[in-house]
From TrEMBL:
Species this chain originates from: Sphagnum jensenii
Biased composition (Polar residues): 902-911
Acidic residues bias locations: 1462-1489
Coiled-coil positions: 1364-1398
Compositional bias (Low complexity): 881-896
A Pfam family of this chain: FancD2
Region (Disordered): 821-911, 1451-1489
Family: Belongs to the Fanconi anemia protein FANCD2 family.
Localisation per UniProt entry: Nucleus
Name by which UniProt lists this protein: Fanconi anemia group D2 protein
InterPro entries per the UniProt record, alphabetical: FANCD2
Keywords from the named record: Coiled coil, Isopeptide bond, Nucleus, Ubl conjugation
Amino acid sequence: MTIAGKKRPASAAGDGGDEFVSLLAEAGCNLLSQGPTVVTRDLQQRLQLTLKGADASIVANFVAGLESHVADDGNLHRLLMPMVVNGKSVDARPLCSLARVLLSVPSLQTAVTNILLEKLPEHIGDECTSGGHLPALIDSIPRLILSQFRFLNFLVDSHSMTEKLLEILSICPFALKKEIITFLPEVIVDSEHEMVVRALEQLLQEDLQLIVTVLDAFSSLNLEEDLFDQVVNLALGSLRTADAEDLPLIVKFLLQSATSTNVKQIVQKLRENLQFVTVSDVRAFKPDRKQKGKSSAPSSEALILDAIQSGLQVQNLICDAFLKEIRSLEGESNHKVVDVWLLLIIHANGGPYRKLAEGLLKRKVVHGDFNTALIQKCLCGRGESLQFYFKTLLSVSESLLRTNEVATHDFGTHVYILLFEEFVSNFHRQEVLGSLITHIGSGLTHEVGAALDALLWLATKFARELIPLSSFMNGILDYLEGFQDSHLHKVYRMFSLLALVARFCGGISNGVSVADDLLIVVRKQISNPDLKYKRMGIVGAVALISCLGQKITEEDRLSDHDTSGPRITEALTLLQMNMDACKASAVACSFFYDELAVPVESSILHASIIEWIAVQTEDFSTLYLGDVEGGQLQTILITSGIPGEPWMNLDGNLSAIILNVLPLLIAFPNHRHVKSKLHTSQPLLHLSANVRLLAAVERETNQGSLGSIDALLGCPLYLPKHQLMLGEPWKSLTRRQKELSCYGLFYSINWIRELINAFATQIEARVDDSSAQLTKEETTTKLLQRLRNLMFLEQLLNKCLKAVPYLSFPRLHSLGETPVALKPECKSGNTKKETVKAASKKGRKVGKKEAAQGKGDGKGNTQDCKGSHKMHQSSIQDAMGRAAGAGASQTSQQMSIPAQGPSRSGASNSSALEHLENSHLAQKESCNSLLLDQQKWKFRALNLACASILTTHQVGFLCSTSTCCVASLMLPLYLYILQDLQMKLDTCLDQPARKLAPWMVAAPAPKAPSGLGGLAGCDVLKRLQPVFPSLKRHLDSAVEQLHSDIATCQEHWNHECVAAGNPMTILDVSISMSETAQAVFMVILQCLCKILTYPEVTLLANLPVLKELLSAFSSAEGANQMVMDLCPQPSPGSFEYVLCGTYAYLDSLHDAAAAASLAVAAELVMVLKALVNCAQQCLEQATEEKRKRSSSLRVPGLLPLIRTKLSNSAGRVLTYNSDAQEPWKSKGDLLQQLLHMLVQFNSSPIDLLEEIACTVLPQVPVKGSKGVPGYPALSPTTLLIWYRVHHEEVLILFNTVMKDILAQSKTKTSLTRDMVVKLLSRAHQCVRVHVALVNLTKSHDKSAIHAVAVKYGGKFVDAFLGGVEFLQAKYDLHKDAINDLVKELQKATRIIQALCSEAKGQKRMPVACKVPAVKRSMEKFVFCVKALLHGASHGNSFWMGNLKHKDVHGHEVSSQVHVSSNDDEEDIEAEDHESETCDEGNGIDEYGS
């Protein structure tokens, strides 16, 4: 304000005014009407001397004169302004004001204070300037008045001054309120703190905008503990409603105020109220590039993070509290954005907490608590605000990608992408790219793949931004040799996207260099004669073609700069160059066809590209097919001494073509007995790949129909005469002829597999093609016949391999899952001696292993191993593995790595090999299980579309036997597809196990290709939805077969095989419908279990798939029965209703599963457990808002109901009577899981444990193999498993009781007597079960049993010690119950003490190694009981003495002297402590430790 020009009416001058002026003059102060007050002497000292002994009237007159003097605003302003020593001097030195001097005089301070503070309200209205800000200090009378009170040496009446200030505070404007509040800590004394806190708290209720000023004032006060807690609670309460710009200071105040008593509350409130949910547009924070050197003000979020960082740097207590709080959280919905930032801030601060924060972040990511959506909220739109944390985020991302967990890879990859997107400067983006390239150079498969995923995503979304930085990425092209196939595809795809944008979008510097470098590398690799580099070039060329030859989009048509023409031309040039380079090598040609089929199948290529590919496939019929008329060959084919004939002609006389397998084998040799190098041109090597490309082109050009090539499905194959495949004719063939025959069968198998892949797409395809010669029913029939051909050929090839056991086939699938590059099948460097030696060594190894396996199965082999190689009668399971085997995954583990390429043999060594073939080793080899399984990983994979065969039906031959079931006879065919489907699910749904060090594991066996084409698990399940109802249909057929007594109808089976063209005379196949049904039952259950245990199946996006699966297996009748027990009852069609129906249906299969085998029954229980776990996960996640609107569990009683039913199901399996001798002997893991389910899911687990421990387990005999009546799974052989599981379960229940006791004791509400009695009763029941289990050691003297008793006995005592404080607090009211509890536990401690002593004496190491820890627990138990009784009864009821040394049975031991030992642990004192308690009027009981 401006003082000049504003006057107030002055009061009449009287005696007071004269005395005021005269006293000041005498003291050396002259009051002037204009200018500053002049002082010539020490004014303060003279005034104090003058007024010290003066009369009260003089002081009153002086005060009255002062009051009249300041009535004028000009005089008041001069009174508040600094005085000068000499007003006439130019160098006048300002001093303090006259008002300040008067306030320093004790006799005047109170009066002057009242005068000045009363003047303050008169000038409040003058402070309301524009903008609400206070004027400068020299122009503001209120500010000048307040400044007089700062830093006074003393206060005469602080209470009245504080009251006056607080009274004025309520009527001040906002700006002046802040000034007064800031001023308060400088003038008030400690005694006034409570009054000030109360007043300011009330003021905050009226205006929360003052919170920062108030907290700043509080921080300057030395508050007592209760006031300090009140202030902290005030700050915590303001977090929710404070403005964003005030939050940083509030957070800083709270962190500085944290103590050990309130730190947990502060941490919880900060997590609750710091949401960080406001996502700003990152572009809004970008500084103007024209204003160089000018930076925008930091956002409130950045200031909050800085406040947290400074607070965490000061106090380690807060770091510990934050880490503990975040560590205790579980579930995705319970974590917030602030949790991620807290861990990042702790990581950025460094020090000892850096690793703790990083480790906790990894664990949260692995457990799914931190997901990509959460990190998206953390980073999106905050690039400019988080510049300081860029290096921390980069370091965390590097650490995440170095781990072996898939979840951390996805999370780290997403962080890299967000960093590149949010931090837009070149420096930051170069750092991101440099870090990713460093990961690529690590050489670790998982790390390289994750880094390439991030780069590929960036190249897809930010190609233009990456091109200026391409110099950082071009170095990747120099290290392509070390990449796997999957990595090569990502690298070339990434560079192809960059090259496309660089070459055809224009306007980008350095772009042409990227495209030219890529083209140079690709051309060099394609022209390289080494197949390894040629293969890499093919991958790069196809990636380029996929980018250049894409279909023209609507955006391209509307664009002014249309580049489609040049792109297509360049793509066609690359295609022609690849085709010319691959013609000389069949292996390279096969790989090129497979690679090219992928974009064709994806329907992304331009029509010109498709047309060019179609032209290249026109020579297929010329190269592979021959002409047939009336079912007979028109030309005589040269077969080099091996007569041939058409096989498996499905079209009969209508067939016009035939596949020339045998002629091509003769015309283009590719085997090691041929010394020429023409093997690389063998057309059969790329036959299957050619079929795949041909079918893909036909589907693309004919709207999904294969009508123009449907003749391939039924055409015959030209193979050696089937009469040569058995008996003496087979033995008379030379080694070369046998190998040619085996190769013919091998290529025929892969031809049929690729045909099934191609035409399986027609089952569900909805095409309207009038040119199609086959209807859908005919296609289905022929597919099933080809499936019979495939099974027959595989079985026949396995038999033929017995004659050439060391023959190795070429790998026909190109997208291998191993990093081994393609190599020529024939190399002249290996000598004949080395080949035979390696083969014989491998043969012995395989034979021994598989012979042992066959022995372990106890089922033997049906092969005829005596004398000749006459083909024996085989069961259908020989072509598919054993009926209830572990599936394809177990088969792959049993495979041994075959020799590289086919075996070589010339004329000189053929007789030696034939002699070896007929030797004892060859005979032993022929007795082994399937030899073909060792090389199935080289076969072409069946695609996921083949699963649609499961949805087919076949109605054909009507059997004369009325009891023959057509549906059951289809089970062997469906079983083949089901086992392949199981292998696919194992591949895509298995969670990768933690990898061990290379020296801890053996070299992995080659894996069969999955045929999934890189599909993720969720995508596979979505594509399998139409198959789910068929799985239930086949399961019902298998169950019906197991329940019925229908005999095997060999007539029907043989008719179907003959109709498919199988030469049944050389290989009779008998079918066992019970074994087949059992296998189908087992495989379907394993598939269900695999799907239900997939962690992502319960995610929101996958709930429709899960519901579809459950609906397929749901039973309406069973659901209606189950929902009767629920309240409220779920409505039909709801998720709960479907879940009940599925559980009821599966639960009804127990009888059929038990009839099949123990393994099937146990697998059924595992499926039910997986279903219960799915229900549990859906229930835990039902609190999320999105899930509330979706199909989720909302019936509270459903989960307990199905858990109880699961316990009953596990009990049924345990009581299953098997005809096998000791069926549980080798199933320890399975038995353990079933026992855990029996107890954990029971409605009353402790009652069940008490029943088994007290009545069932004591019935187990000491020796023999006979089980307990009613419990066949419980015998002396399995007692150890039952014993250990029951100890584990009772310990879990007792720990739960102790946790409940501790939780109840910490609550502020007092426990009722009934609640305490209930807790003590639960604890007493657990103790009784424990005592009953320990008592079993008296009758069972095995060291393993004793070791378990000692181990869990010590743990049980430790758990008991955790509740001693509670027992001591409740002892007076529940003395009898607590005494009984301790007495009961004493029975177990005595026996455990005896076991420890015996173990030391008899040197039972399994028990002795646990003795020291158990001894310490027992000693703690004794002294804690002593403390309990001493505190409750003043020590009169407890005394301690020495027990007699007794054994487990209670017999006294004559001496305690043990054999001397150097081990200190063996010198543990053998004397036992005895503690006795006698209650008033009660007897004496012993307490032994």
